[in-house]
Amino acid sequence: MDAVVVGAGFAGLYALHRLRGLGLRAVVLEAGDGVGGTWFWNRYPGARCDVESLNYSFSFDEDLQRDWVWTERYSTQAEILRYLEHVADRFDLRRDIELNTRVSAATLDEAAGTWTVTTDAGREITARYVVMATGCLSDSRVPGFPGRDTFAGRSFHTASWPDDVDLTGQRVGVIGTGSTAIQLIPQLAARAEHLTVFQRTPAYSIPAHNRPLGAEQDAVKAEYAAFRARALTAALGIASLPGGTGKLSALEVSPETRRAEFQRRWEHGGIALAGAFHDLMSNPDANHEVAEFVRGKIAGTVRDPSVAERLTPRYPFGTKRPCIDIDYWETYNRPNVELVSLLDDPLVEITPDGVRTARAHHRLDALVYATGFDAFTGALSRIRIAGRSGRTLAEHWADGPGAFVGVGLAGFPNLFLVTGPGSPSVLSNMIVSIEQHVDWIADLVEHTEKHGHDLVEPTADAERDWMAHVDQMAGRTLYQGAQSWFTGANVPGKPLRMLAYVGGVPYFRKRCAAIRDGGYQELRFSSAG
Ligand code: NA7
Question: What does the pLDDT look like over 469-491, one tens digit per residue?
Answer without folding.
Answer: 999 999 999 998 788 999 999 99
